[in-house]
Design brief:
Number of strands: 0
Keywords: Membrane, Transmembrane, Transmembrane helix
Membrane topology: Multi-pass membrane protein
Order of helices and strands: HHHHHHHHHH
Distance between the termini: 20 Å
Subcellular location: Membrane
Number of helices: 10
Number of domains: 1
Protein name: Zinc permease
Pfam family, one: Zip
Helix content: over 70%
């Protein structure tokens, strides 16, 4: 299979994320539906945190078992740095966005308003900010997945590459739902342009990772992106849990988180079977 065809399949795997995004345009969802959507997204994202950290730890664990201390130290440092930047960095980013939004509200005709107006439509509300953060975290994760696809193709393991593409494609379809869940939970109906933007942020990196992975096989790079992804997704999970607690629908929330976890494992089954 040519490099072009592998890249094309990587693009298809990434853009299946659009299958789940239209859920964000639901009209006037009921409170129970809002809570359920939010909780299912939490379950999916919790699975992703586990999945991402597992893949990031694998090369470090292999180095430990073989007593190769150099890769262990460098890989561990990269993972800690990526996790910290992804988690703590988003706290500062969220605060910066909130200050810009507050400044715009106080001075609607001033520079602050113009700055906020220039921000992407997806970040003009709290739910929109969460959706953008989820898309960013998933995008980092998907870049690492694209690296796996490209690496497999570069090493001549085409059957594995194709299976990875199928598995990641199924996985991305559920991730699209996770991105728009905060918008649906708040009753905000994003425009098609916003959905297009969120899909590009979340799914596009799979294609980019596939291109890079065909020419660069590097565990450290993969660990860096996986660490960033895990930190950012974990931050979003914390935010969504706060939203879930406010609903007071504990039984429904718990059941839907469980459903989200099951969906995450189910869509990852093909990837696991392929040996990723």
């Amino acid at each position: 299979m040519s490099s072009t065809n592998i890249a094309l399949l990587g693009a298809i795997a990434g853009f299946t994320i659009y299958l789940g995004l239209p859920i964000g345009r639901l009209r006037t969802p009921t409170p129970r539906l809002k809570a359920g959507l939010n909780a299912v997204a939490i379950g999916i994202l919790l699975f992703l945190v586990w999945d991402v950290l597992t893949h990031a730890w694998e090369p470090i664990d292999e180095g430990l078992s073989k007593h190769h201390w150099g890769p262990v130290v460098s890989g561990g440092a990269v993972l800690v740095a990526g996790l910290g930047i992804g988690l703590v960095g988003l706290v500062y980013y969220d605060g910066w966005i909130a200050r810009r939004r507050q400044a715009a509200a106080q001075r609607p005709a001033g520079p602050g308003a113009a700055a906020v107006t220039e921000l992407a439509p997806a970040v003009r509300s709290q739910a929109g900010s969460l959706a953008l953060m989820i898309a960013t975290g998933i995008g980092l994760h998907n870049f690492a997945e694209g690296l796996a696809i490209g690496n497999s193709a570069a090493q001549g393991e085409l059957s594995l590459a194709v299976l990875l593409i199928i598995g990641f494609g199924l996985h991305n379809a559920t991730e699209g739902f996770g991105i728009v869940a905060p918008l649906a939970a708040e009753g905000e109906r994003p425009s098609w342009a916003t959905l297009l933007q969120l899909g590009l942020i979340g799914g596009g990196p799979t294609f980019l990772g596939t291109l890079v992975g065909q020419h660069l096989v590097n565990d450290t790079l993969s660990i860096a992106f996986l660490g960033l992804a895990a930190g950012s997704i974990l931050y979003v999970v914390i935010e969504l849990l706060a939203v879930a607690r406010k609903t007071g629908l504990k039984n429904l929330t718990t059941s839907c988180i469980f459903l989200g976890l099951i969906l995450g494992f189910a869509t990852d089954a093909v990837v696991t079977a392929a040996g990723a």
